[in-house]
Amino acid sequence: MAQNDLDELYGNDLIRDHNRNPRNSAKLNSPDLVADAVNPFCGDEAHFQINLDGQGRVSEVGYEGVGCAICRSAGSMLSEVIKGHTLEEVEEISGLFQDMMFGVEPSEEQAALLGDLTSMTGVRAFPIRIKCALLAWSAIEDRISEHQRRQP
Q1: Domains in the chain: how many in total?
Q2: Which residues of 67-83 are buried (b: 16+ CB within 10 A; e: fewer)?
Q3: Residue 53 sits in a domain of what CATH number?
Q4: Whole-prediction pTM value?
């Protein structure tokens, strides 16, 4: 059964597509926020550059991921989902994704906010891989917290 679950997970079209064709892979010239995270145990890396518009909404994202398909796909999906949202909304979406990864089913409205990230529910069958899916969010959350502490 575990092998079938694994085959299904990696056979997921969205995960496979985001892994092979990561979104927002262009680097930004002068990003407002830079967020990086590395998992020292497996070598996964997530690197983000984010620009904010005049209303504090994410206007542009640059993303580079190194490592397994789950890590790269989750980072690519994140780079799409956060566009147009304020940093506070990004934190809310992050919480929804974390809850989903630990078994809380999102409502229809929450699933709409999560977008392609809902395709990651299959990762829950492999608890050790949940860290892979959450690495990108860890980078973003840490940087948002630091940014908010520096605001007057």
Answers
A1: 1
A2: bbbbbbbbbbbbbbbbe
A3: 3.90.1010.10
A4: 0.88
